[in-house]
Amino acid sequence: MILKSWPLAAVAAVLCATGIASGQSTHVKDLRVGKLLVAARDLPDPDFAQSVILLVHYDHEGAVGLMLNRRTRATISRVIQDLDTGKRGSDPIYVGGPVEMSVVMGLLKSQQKPEEADSVLSDVYLVSTKALLQKSLAGSSGPSDLRLYLGYCGWGGGQLENEMQAGGWWIFDADVGVVFDPDPGSIWSRFIARTERLNAQSEPGALHRAGSGR
pLDDT, tens digit, for every residue of 34-48? Predict the structure, then answer.
């Protein structure tokens, strides 16, 4: 599927008229750490269908992301054997992606950057070492500030860019509220509804009505 590209002025007019949140893009130049990838409705790869992915690494050699909307019914203590999960043992674990499902990474909400953590966006950090995972589990209050993921999403150099140009993904700005959304299973449907509203309201008739105030 090739997604339609609308003139910048037309999109801006619709955004102002309808109050749809900014940050939506299909341009490769907007790929960077801290951005969300929202799968297009007809993305053919079943591993990524209806996924919302937070980019935690991006450079010319490739990209790494974590799926935010694949919460499982399994608990951390049931899945992870070599960490003392303590009071967080009953928290759910998430599927971060189809690559290396034995790898465990975490997203931590914190006002201060923990040592050895990688900054992803404001107040959100990637936790990837065993020691820091253990420390984060001991100090967190629950899924509202720490989520653990099995596996990740990975792309080689140029692969994600090709998928973008083929219309496979939408890019959105991320924030701490999306990363730790209490209803992660509905994130994709909410984002895709926004893209479809924008497309519908970008039709020439809709733009005329928005510009005329009707």
Answer: 999 999 998 989 999
